[in-house]
Amino acid sequence: MARRSADLFDASEIHFAFDELFFSRTDAAGVIQFGNSVFQRVSIYGWDELLGRPHKIVRHPDTPRAAFWLLWDAVKAGRPFGAYVKNRSKDGRYYWVFAIVTPIDGGYLSVRLRPSTELLAVIKREYPAFSALERKENLAPADSAPLLLDRLKTLGFPDYPTFMAAALGQELAALDARLGRPHDPTIAHFQGLHETAKTLLQKADIIADAYVTNENVPFNFRVLAAQLGQDGAAISVISTNYTLLSVEIRGILADFTAAAHDVFRTISEGYFLACTARVQREVLNQFRNEAGAAGEAREQEELLLDRQQVEYSAKAETGLREIARKAKGFRQACLDMERLAAALEVTRVMGKVECSRHISVKDRLDELLARLEHFQATVAAALRDIDVINEHIQSEAGHLLARARRAA
Ligand SMILES: Cc1cc2nc3c(=O)[nH]c(=O)nc-3n(C[C@H](O)[C@H](O)[C@H](O)COP(=O)(O)O)c2cc1C
User: Fold this and answer.
1) pTM above 0.70, yes or no
2) Helical H runs in 293-361?
3) Of 201, 218, 214, 249, nearest to 382 (Cα)?
4) Which of 86, 116, 122, 249 shows the smallest number of beta carbons within 10 Å?
5) How far is the CA of 313 from the centre of ligand 1 (A)?
């Protein structure tokens, strides 16, 4: 019985080849102005039914409203957007695409490919459940979008740009593998860079966590100094030093964490732009060889596609320069942290000397100093790793930039 329903399920999916890319162009309201023959064939609508109709003509209820809310939010603000979309053809069958929508003069362009990765399998489970929830709770798209973002967070994607970059990169790599094409070095490099940048965030988190764990150390120092009265004057100085340092660390830590996230976000954006440029380039090549595209303005559409891919290749290059610049800037935040870590070490050594003089509180002082030592060692080790990662990011961005320039 289960097998039968699975067969039925399959039969309701429309298949198209992995090397068939779609594109369509809409006006500013999402009304279809043009499309290629793959789009027309798979949607099963006639051109007279597609042109001049809202793009939601192919809407499938399993794609969450939240996804479209995020789409419009991004493209109206001039940002490119990518998403998995389940669409419905005229005969009621469905097909999955990974769609990239970019703003153009007077409207939007959508290029789409056939997805096939593990991530698609996850989305196939998530979307219908999420859409059902939207309907059950009668959620407005604007209210449901943050919930979709939360869901992506639990799936390991801190924000939507990270998700769409990782998804598109994986889908393109899978497409190349399926079509027996050589590995795309740009995508492979970006994939590596994205993973590396994730470890950068993890290291920055280690420092932030270590700070939170030890936040009460200065207070404990002060308590100890107070208990010792006059005898505790030196410890009191140490505690004051440490308190000041701790406040400074907290301030720098906020900038440091923000800078690490900024590097990561810039890499996600560059990754997505580079992948977008590649899909647009392929769509253009396919369209040039395609017979029977709709309308008479074929040349104009080719020009438009060409302009888009040139624009996105240039944006990807700018993105790479930004990555190198942000990583370089992040180095300054690391130096600030290193300076504070060194000052902490001085405070700790002073404490160690004092420790031997106060036998009565030796154990507690020892414990505090051990915590301080551990904190300092954790920060120093994470900073060393970050230094290596940061160097790597800068050199990878340099390689990618050189490759992009050679390709241009
Ligand atoms: C360029 C472009 C392409 C689009 N492609 C699709 C698509 O393939 N499928 C779809 O359901 N909506 C697509 N949309 C979004 C629709 O305009 C619409 O927002 C969506 O179908 C949700 O409709 P609803 O709010 O009436 O449910 C596209 C929008 C643009 C601007």
Assistant:
1) yes
2) 298-357
3) 201
4) 122
5) 25
